[in-house]
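Help!! Second protein's tokens look totally different from the first
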Amino acid sequence: MPVLRACPHRLVNDGSKRYLNTERTERRKQKIDLAQELMASRYVLNASYIASDVDVRDFNRAMARIPYAFSDNPDVIQAYDRMVANKTDDTLFGLLEASLAAAGLSKYAVARTHLSKVMTVVAGKK
């Protein structure tokens, strides 16, 4: 009898561990996706780039997702709060760096000097 009683408990524990691992993996994937989205859409901040409504919307949506996706990381939340309170290149770069680190992408981190260097191509007129 003790073996049968232990089995259901073990199945529940194994199931909850798998669920927690899946949740942790999904959460990390959300962070990576958001960090990549922020890096990919930062070109809209380039002074010489004329951003479309879609460009602005995409960047703003990515920024709005930060408090949710990184709610478990105080460094990102502090960087986000600093950037919201004082919108400068320095606070934005700090936020991007913190987001990359929190997403586990710090080994791929971009040098701060390259964060502001974004190549944009002007679309041809038809």
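Here's the second one for comparison:
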Amino acid sequence: MVNVTRVGDYGGVRWVHRLDCGHSAVRKRRGGVRLGCVECLGAREFESFSRELVKAPPPVVDDGLAEAEVEAASLRALVAGRLGVPQEQVEVVVGVAANGRLGVRSGWVWLSASQLRSVL
């Protein structure tokens, strides 16, 4: 703290504390020798908070799931269209292929008796 100045008259006295950092703090009572600057403390807290926000995100692992799901959805639509059944009756299974990537492994179609007769 650099200095303390009294401002105002009886009943309305305010003490202006001039701090080492250049800021000033206005209080109703004269402060002690150790008075912290709210603006500087807030800036320090914001700096540490903003540093935490800027940390690099973890690396994204591309396991091919998105591509496998797109392939499964298009295959499901193709089979449903060819057989003339709703897509809900077609199941496509995605699994790990021999090369270690995800891909379509198998699939099946649920048919009612009438649908089975119309396909055959």
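Reply: Different proteins will give different token patterns, so don't panic. The beta strands are 3-7, 14-18, 24-27, 90-96, 102-109.
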